[in-house]
Write a structure and sequence with these properties.
This protein is α/β, with parallel strands linked by helices. It has 2 domains: 2-94, Elongation Factor Tu (Ef-tu), domain 3; 105-228, Rossmann fold. Helix content is 21%, strand content 37%. The protein contains 5 helices and 12 strands. Helix 4 (181-189) packs parallel to helix 5.
């Protein structure tokens, strides 16, 4: 299957929002939170990488990704150099990082481009009468809060959604949360230890650290879902 690039737009330094279409099908079915895999020939070697889908399922064959440029990476420089109309080999969506218990509230914890699957999940699941969602999103700088306007609009529109951004390198004019997501995790959870699910997506160090915090707080492992980006 071929993924044809429709457009790519820079949304933060060295981070782009990509729109692709699965060229051979009219509709690309997937579950919010799943990923696609791209394969390309790089320096004579076939390289495959998985990327979380950043859009909700639709009736079309289009899907969106949020990727950061890894200068010494095998595949991201190739994707960042692609022009609209060019294609890359892809495998159909897979993955189990999806909503398991539709009746339970959820806390979503992301750092960096780990925000991608949560954008998909929120666009697909957040409704007036949906479960409550809390998004705790950590980046270094304010200008790296990808999709900030979308999440702020969701928070205004849906009273059962909370958007909690935090910065590890805030500027002088930042009045919001500061520090790592770990510092704000338990206040975001409150007294709901036994009756919510927690989803984690980001670099290994954050994911491992938060899992330990959750286990120490009394969370069962069946309440914790995670994906690591390294």
């Amino acid at each position: 299957m071929q993924a044809r690039l429709i457009e790519s737009v820079e949304i933060a330094p060295e981070v782009r929002h990509f729109v692709f279409e699965a060229a051979e099908v009219d509709k690309l079915p997937f579950i919010p939170g799943q990923f696609v895999s791209f394969t390309d020939l790089v320096e004579g070697k076939q390289i495959t990488r998985a990327y979380s889908i950043a859009s909700a399922p639709s009736e079309s064959n289009r899907f969106e990704l949020c990727l950061n440029l890894v200068h010494d990476g095998h595949l991201s420089p190739r994707l960042f150099s692609m022009q609209p109309g060019e294609s890359v080999e892809m495998q159909p969506p897979l993955g189990t990082f999806v909503i398991r218990h539709p009746d339970r509230d959820a806390v979503l914890v992301a750092t960096g481009t780990g925000i991608a699957p949560f954008r998909s999940i929120l666009h697909a699941h957040l409704r007036e009468n949906s479960r409550a969602f809390t998004l705790l999103f950590g980046v270094r700088h304010e200008y790296s809060l990808m999709y900030r306007t979308e999440f702020e609009e969701m928070a205004r529109r849906f009273p059962r959604f909370r958007f909690l951004p935090t910065l590890t390198r805030p500027g002088a004019d930042w009045n919001g949360r500061a520090g790592r997501v770990q510092q704000h995790l338990m206040p975001a959870i409150g007294d709901h230890v036994g009756d919510i699910d927690v989803f984690l997506c980001g670099l290994k160090a954050m994911v491992d650290d938060v899992r330990q915090i959750l286990k120490a707080a009394g969370f069962d492992r069946k309440q914790i879902f995670y994906e690591k980006y390294d």
